[in-house]
Amino acid sequence: MNVYIIGIGLIGGSMALDIKAVHPEATIYGIDTNKKHVDEAIALAVIEAEGKLETIGTADFVIVSVPVDVALVILPQVLDNIGENTIVFEVGSTKSPICEAIAKHPKRRNFIATHPIAGTEFSGPLAAVRGLYEGKTNIICEVERTAFKLQEKALDLFKAMGMRIRYMDPKSHDKHIAYVSHLSHISSFMLGKTVINKEKHEQDIFDMAGSGFESTVRLAKSSPAMWTPIFRQNKLEVVESLEEYISNLTQFKDLLINDDYDAIFEEMESVNRIKEILNGMNSKR
Ligand code: NAP
Q1: Domain-by-domain residue ranges, the chain?
Q2: pTM, full prediction
Q3: Which of the chain's termini has less CB crowding within 10 Å, N or C?
C-alpha cells in the first residue's frame, strides 16, 4: 500500500503514524515545501521517504494536510496526477471553499472532504503523535460525490484509526465550526493579547497566572500561518459568531457596572450546564 502525505505537520504526520500502526506494510511518502520538516519526518520515522507530485499515480491514499489556502491550489494538481483507484482526502478546517474549488474536476469522485476534529496547538512533524485520532470525530462532507468503492476504502481506514464518522454539508460544517473552534481560537488569542499588553507594566500578572489562565490561552500558541487563511475563508461565519460573543461580553460588563450580582450568578449558573454537555459528548466517544 502506497500512501502520500502532502504537508507533513501535526495533522498529516499524526495520520502517517496511525496508518503505519494499522497497516505496517504501507510505504509512506511525504511531500512538503519545508525541507527541514521532510528531514525531521524521515528521522522520526513519520515517513519512509520524500515523494514527488509526479509519482502519486501509484498511490492508494493521498492525504492533503496543508494550510487551507494552499489546499485550494494543490488539490486540483493532485487530482490531475492520481490513478483511477487513488482516494484523496483533505483535512482542512474549512470545507465550503475546497468543495467548491474541485466541484467540476474530472476526478471529483476520487476525493473525500474531511475534517478530523483532533489537534493540538503545536505544528510540524515534531508535533505528530500516534493515537491523535482515537475516539475523535471525523466530519465528512458531500460523501455522495465520492465514488462508493473509494468511500468504503477511506471509511475503513478512518475506523481502523478509531475515528467516529459524522456526515454534514460543507456550509453547516463551516457555520458550526466557527462557534466551537474558530471563535475559541480568537477568544484565546485576544485574552493572551489583553494580558500581554497589561504585563508590560505589571510583571506580577505572570507571577500570579495559574492553571486556569494557562488552559484558557493554550490555543493562543497556535500557528498564525495556519489560522489566518481559516479566518479569511470562513470570514462571514466567524464575524457572526464574534458579534454574538462580543454582545455577551458587553452584557456581562453592564451587569457588573450595575452591581446586578443576582443576574451575574444566574448567568454563570446557566452556563454551568456546559459540564453536562461536555460529559455527554465524552461518554458518546
Ligand atoms: P502544520 O503542522 O503547520 O503542517 C502543515 C505542513 O504543510 C507544514 O510542514 C508546512 O510547511 C507545509 N506546507 C505549507 N505549504 C505547503 C505546500 N505548498 N506544499 C507542501 N507542504 C506545504 O499544520 P497542521 O496543524 O498539520 O494543519 C494542516 C491542516 O489541517 C490545515 O488545513 C488545518 O486547517 C487542518 N487541521 C488542523 C488542526 C489542528 O489542530 N492543528 C485540526 C484539524 C485540521 P511550513 O511550516 O514551512 O509552512
Answers
A1: 2-168, 172-284
A2: 0.94
A3: C
